[in-house]
Amino acid sequence: MAETVYIVGAGPAGAAAAYTASRLGLKAVVFEANPRLAVKPCGQGIPTLEGLEVPIPRESVQRVVRRAVLYVDGEKAVEVSGGFEGYVVDKELFLRSIIESSGAELLTSSHFRPCCGGGVVRAGGQVVEVRSGLLAGGVAFYGGEKIYAVQAVAESPELDSLNELIFDFDTSIVGYYWVFPLASGAEVGVGGFAPVDELVARLRRFAESRLEGARVGPLRGAPIAVGGLDLGAVGGLVKVGEAAGFVMPLTGEGIRPSMISGSEAVKALASGEDPVRRLASLRISRAIAVQRRILQAVKSMSPRERGSLLKSIPAAAHAEIALGTMRVDRILASMASRPDLALRLLRYVVGS
């Protein structure tokens, strides 16, 4: 392949692709449509490093978390602790640090447009023709099912001492609220199958009832890909990251899956492999497919059935499913006393 890899999009997938290209002795040119990085609102959480080859820049870490608490409709269901280490990062600093460490050329305010069997990028008043590389342009290039999420930063003395991830599943919208600790305060949000105005109202009610006395900043929102993988190419560029559906459908986790896809796609290009085939074969791709099947099943249930299922799953199985590790032996071992539930979940995992 050529010694230069063109990457459209400076999000997690694009940053990881640039870093991996550098490790392989290749030069990366990264085009970003926005004038700055990390414009899209994001939970900024990386709950596990499973499968991730790009190091987390120390300077970007806001909190290290080793505990998560899961609620279902406001009722505490399970606690997960001791088996994982996650990070909440400053996403803009996170992405910039990775790209800078790769030595890649980063061109912001550079817009990509498919054209003439390839694509063109308008960068700095010039038109650059791009016929191969990676498209990490985000949800705008995703063709699958999407939901919307809204979030804000909340501040209070109590939140400054928070050192756990909080998830509260709302069975009425097949979605969840989250509270992630930041260096100061916490990020609070909600995503699910509901109109944007309803999500905004729900988030305000959640903050008032669960974060009593906290000052909640301006709300921001964005669509999230939850329909599973949408692999392929646009304008000759192979889709990676959220453009290709590398988001966990049940949890909305996108930073880690997207980074894995960017790294693996560059490795495939460098070795002469078919990058789409390689992306399809990844372990994270299988995890996304499993979560998508579970999401579809949960959507078909009544709110009462959803709540019953979520409350009955043991903490270890919750962790395997939510983190996308999907180790079947651990899921089954955690459900030794519930063979009926184990068989039900196993059907989703194996796809039968």
Describe this protein's structure:
The strands form three sheets. Strands 3, 4, 5, 11, 12, 13, 14, 15 and 16 form a nine-stranded mixed beta sheet that branches. The protein is α/β, with parallel strands linked by helices and 352 residues long. The chain has eleven helices and 18 strands.
Estimate the mean pLDDT confidence: 89
Number of strands: 18
Which stretches are low in confidence, meaning pLDDT under 50 for 5 or more residues running? none
* Class based on secondary structure composition and strand pairing: alpha/beta
Strand content: 25-35%
Helical content class? 25-40%
**Main β-sheet: number of strands, strand sense, barrel status?**
9 strands, mixed
Q: List the secondary-structure elements in sequence, H or E.
A: EHEEEEHEEEEEEHEEEHEEEEHHHHHHH
Q: Which keywords apply here?
A:
352 residues, alpha/beta, nine-stranded mixed beta sheet, six-stranded mixed beta sheet, 18 strands, 34% helix
How do you describe this structure in short?
The protein is an alpha/beta fold and 352 residues long.
Topology of helices and strands:
Blueprint: E1 4-8, H1 12-23, E2 27-31, E3 45-46, E4 61-72, E5 75-89, H2 91-102, E6 105-107, E7 111-115, E8 118-123, E9 126-130, E10 133-135, E11 146-155, H3 157-160, E12 165-170, E13 175-181, E14 186-192, H4 196-210, E15 215-216, E16 220-225, E17 233-234, E18 237-239, H5 255-271, H6 275-280, H7 283-299, H8 303-312, H9 315-322, H10 328-333, H11 339-350
Parallel strand pairs: 1-2, 1-10, 2-6, 4-12, 10-18
Antiparallel strand pairs: 3-5, 4-5, 7-8, 8-9, 11-14, 11-15, 11-16, 12-13, 13-14, 17-18
Helix pairs in contact: 1-2, 1-5, 7-11
